[in-house]
Amino acid sequence: MTGRQTTDARDLSRGMIGKGSEATGLRVRDAIRRSGLKQRKIASVIGIDETKLSKALSGRRRFTADELLGVATATGVTVRWLLGDESQVSALPPNSAAAAAGDDDANPKRTIAEAAWTLFGRYGFDAVRIADIAAASGVSAPSIHYYFGNKSELFDAALDYSVKLAFDRQIAWLDDIADPAQRLERLLKLQSPLGRTERGEWSIWLQTWSRMALDGSTLSNYPLSYERWSRTVQTTLEDGQRTGCFRAGDPRVMADELTSLLDGLGIKVLTGVMDAEIFSQRLRSYLDRAIMLPHNPPPSTATSADRLKESS
Fold first, then answer.
1. CA distances in angstroms from 158 to 1, 104, 125, 202, 238, listed in the order given
2. How far is CA 243 from the centre of its chain?
């Protein structure tokens, strides 16, 4: 194992972000300032004390992946922006916006969208009322209508939030993984409906697919987000083919097959047709049979099902 590979494995196990700590700290500080939140609140949200946060903000301590995710979610920016737009592990969105600087409406709109995301994901679009979202977000129903024309626009905002959560998670947890096999395994784990947040995202996505299948659907932007996810998988497969750890083949076709399998298995888990252990076994079997070269087994041979079941 090379020195670089050793470093990657160590950083992965600790969940540390390897970009310039000082530059990242400055961006986190800027995001906190724009959000109007106190550092004490941010520290509480991401689960560390203020002393550790201060050290990270000054560059004397690196943020962990989970901490950057917490900062991005609390302040409304993306993890890619916090890292200086340097990460290459995820395909760029069609319109890459860094942060909503100067938007006085950003905070209440984001609070409402997050409340809508939680309620839609738990109870479904039809069962949730505007009054429910207003109560959950701590605003009045007229305030909801000030920012969103109707419930469909709220669902669109919830979908955008789901997409942000998924790609923030990918950037935070994949950026330091150089080995394509490790990166693909982690990518699939992050996108699996096995954690609490991920199940909420999958519920929103499943409702989105159902609505898109109906006549008159207005969810025209979602296919672009899905294409971005597919390109992320395809890029990882291309990297693995170049380094000789993945089988040869058309990476676009392989990405389509792999994402389709993940979608189908994920729906079975979400609806209770399949349990998490079988989900992990089926996905692992496909990777070994169709993606991995026989001479390059997964990085760790023990409890592969458990690796895919872990929540990030």
1. 44, 20, 11, 12, 32
2. 26
